[in-house]
Design brief:
Blueprint (H helix, E strand, L loop, with lengths): L1 E3 L2 E4 L3 H12 L4 E4 L4 H5 L6 E2 L1 H9 L4 H6 L1 E3 L1 E6 L2 E6 H5 L3 E3 L2 H14 L3 E3 L3 E6 L7 E6 L2 E6 L2 E4 L6 H5 L6 E17 L7 E5 L5 E7 L2 E8 L10 H11 L2 H4 L6 E16 L2 E2 L2 E3 L5 E2 L7 H22 L3 H4 L1 H23 L7 H16 L1 H11 L5
Parallel strand pairs: 1-12, 2-3, 2-13, 3-9, 6-15, 13-20
Antiparallel strand pairs: 4-8, 5-8, 6-7, 10-11, 11-12, 14-17, 14-18, 15-16, 16-17, 18-21, 19-20
């Protein structure tokens, strides 16, 4: 089967769906191909701390109604270390707040929006490959069942994540990869329990980092620093709650609600960027181009930022014939990406415990946190980075 569209999109995660939605609203055709089923995609548990710019972009794309109705706004974050605790007032420091709304919910909203507008999303495909990038009309080839198909496109948007075919198409001769693997892993937990606090709580503890977050008044999310060789099976619910309780400030630990864990995942922490983010008529967006450690809550926000820039460039091209925004897409996106990579890496290194127990690094971390607890200027810089205002 042969198809023709203006923009072929590989990947039906938030980046691919959002790009398709925005292009549709601007009169540009697209087709998405996705190797997984909708049920599999919606079954993945991901974070959901949204910058103000991300929220506004989702609203402009017509997927803000349920978000506005069900989200939780956090006006600040709290940080704990050495039995001390301080709060950063994001609203006072940087004039805005962070919005908590799960990535799964965003994906569900985008799926519904694409279906409502008749968007073409082809799920459960296999053997996806990219061809003829040097031609005016590159091809996406794939199989569904026993049938082979191809889509002829003006452009291809690679939104298929870190293990997708899009990144693989940018060979070493075309791109340079920058990667750093942190000596920390997370056990990420979603559980049926009352959150221990009303805002995000970041804990630096001698036994390891903990992040306390929420999805709703009855659903909590925790991230617990664990060993790099740990498996999910190593962490029983008794061990999970025991470790969290020990690492929480005493006054918070007494309020800990130990509910049932509905999802447990081991998350390696790493940073990755590929440059450039395009070749000829292939453009990368989201995790296919970059990965950040989740401590800084930047992954989904960067993906939406990529889509904003790429959609703006494609709209300009189709409406005026000018290619300048497409030509500058990679540089414009990377400027924000590297700032976010730095912030997420810095925040990660300060809060986590070095498994090699380097005493110098430990003391350095404490001094950083002391300065942050006392300095209005340091708090303002963190708040602006956290909200994406300094990019």
């Amino acid at each position: 089967m042969k198809k023709r569209t203006q923009v072929g999109i590989i990947g039906a995660g938030p980046a691919g769906l959002l790009l398709s939605q925005v292009l549709h609203l601007n009169g540009i055709e697209s087709i998405i191909v996705e190797r997984q089923s909708p049920e599999h995609i919606l079954g993945r548990t991901r974070a959901g701390a949204l910058e103000p710019g991300t929220v506004n972009f989702l609203r402009s794309a017509g997927v803000g109604e349920r978000l506005d109705r069900e989200c939780h706004s956090h006006k600040g974050i709290e940080v704990c270390f050495q039995n001390s605790r301080f709060r950063l007032d994001l609203e006072e420091l940087a004039g805005d707040n962070i919005t908590i709304y799960g990535q799964t919910d965003i994906t569900k909203d985008l799926m519904s929006a694409r279906a409502k507008l008749g968007g073409e999303v082809i799920y459960n495909v296999a053997n996806t490959s990219i061809h003829d990038l040097n031609a005016d009309s590159p091809l996406i080839r794939y199989t569904k069942g026993e049938e082979g198909s191809e889509i002829k496109c003006d452009f291809i948007a690679g939104c298929d994540g870190s293990r997708g075919v899009s990144r693989e198409s940018l060979t070493e001769k075309i791109s340079t990869n920058f990667e750093y693997k942190y000596p920390y892993h997370w056990l990420a937990i979603l559980c049926e329990s009352r959150p221990v606090c009303d805002e995000l709580l970041y804990i630096h503890h001698e036994k390891g980092f903990v992040l306390c977050s929420m999805r709703s008044p009855s659903i909590s999310r925790y991230a617990v620093q664990c060993g790099v060789h740990d498996t999910v099976e190593d962490w029983s619910e008794d061990r999970i709650w025991g470790e969290i309780s020990e690492r929480l400030p005493p006054e918070v630990a007494t309020t800990l609600d130990t509910g049932s864990c509905v999802d447990k995942t081991i998350v390696p922490l790493k940073s990755f960027v590929t440059e450039p983010m395009n070749y000829k008529r292939l453009f990368l967006a989201g995790d296919s181009a970059h990965i950040v450690p989740p401590t800084g809550a930047k992954g989904l926000n960067l993906a939406c930022s990529d889509v904003y820039l790429l959609s703006k460039a494609l709209v300009q091209y189709y409406k005026s014939g000018k290619p300048d925004l497409l030509e500058s897409y990679s540089n414009n996106a990377l400027e924000r990406i590297w700032k976010a990579e730095w912030f997420a890496g810095w925040w990660t290194e300060i809060l986590h415990i070095d498994p090699n127990h380097n005493l110098y690094k430990r003391r350095e971390q404490i001094e950083h946190l002391k300065k942050l607890s006392r300095s209005h200027g340091a708090q303002m810089a963190l708040a602006e980075s956290y909200l994406g205002k300094s990019y």
